[in-house]
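It is worth pausing here to work through a concrete case rather than discussing structure prediction in the abstract. The textbook approach is simple: state the sequence, then state the predicted structure, then interpret. We follow exactly that order.
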Amino acid sequence: MPIDVEKLLGYSIPTVRQTLTRRETAFYALSVGMGQDPEDERQLSYVDYSRDLRALPSMAVVLAHPGFWLADPRSGVDATQVVHGEQELNLHAPLPVEGELVGETSIVGLVDKGPGQGALLYTRKAVTDAASGKLIASTLNTTFIRGGGGFGGSATPFKPSPTQSVGEPDFVVDLPTRAEQALYYRMNGDDNPLHANPAVAAQAGFTRPILHGLCTFGVVCHAVVKVLADYDASLLRGMSLRFSSPVYPGETIRSEIWRDGSFQARVLERDALVVSNGLAYLGGRA
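Step two, the predicted structure:
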């Protein structure tokens, strides 16, 4: 059924203040599969909090996260029909491994795909340093609400998607996920039951709980940092992608990456394209 636009646009998404610890930074990297090679010193620098720890850039999507606020009936949305459509991340400063952060999330766009079709909800989050107010990262999240269209809104896309490179990729990176990975990942603050409860997954039309789209985002970020930055996360300035199909925990994600920063990903077990229109931005910082 169509979303309740008045409720949705009037919903006050809570501002979140987070005390980030080194353990949480390491846990995030572990939750997206870092450290599966215990002899790879480059990966260990992201998961071993006893050393000179680094933050995987994709962690910005969970920092000061407001949680699954669409599950609140006051949002005017049927939470069982919500899936992640696209994700964009921009880094304005190096991510800290610990400290006080503030996250402010707001609705910035809503697209009506038509009666009986879906709706696209765009939310932007700004993550700032609590002490200085300095902007650290910003994210743009596209949520697809199945069957939520027909409320009389604009059908104009909020933003164009990047053009995918053609030809053979320059790099191919296979990274396995674990059967219980969604259960780990949800401890970062995304507790949508779609990723843990078989009954909820079945109600949404899936054979079993699926992996969080943002967990897939983290796995692909790992692949990008590995081949385009030789594990130097400070070189990644931003990345965006479209989620084309869900990943089931336990599947292997193959990231196909071009030197210009464009990428896509598929799962080997089903040869299904799960990420498309990907683009990573790299460069030094002033």
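Step three, interpretation. The longest strand covers residues 99-112. DSSP finds six helices and ten strands in the chain.
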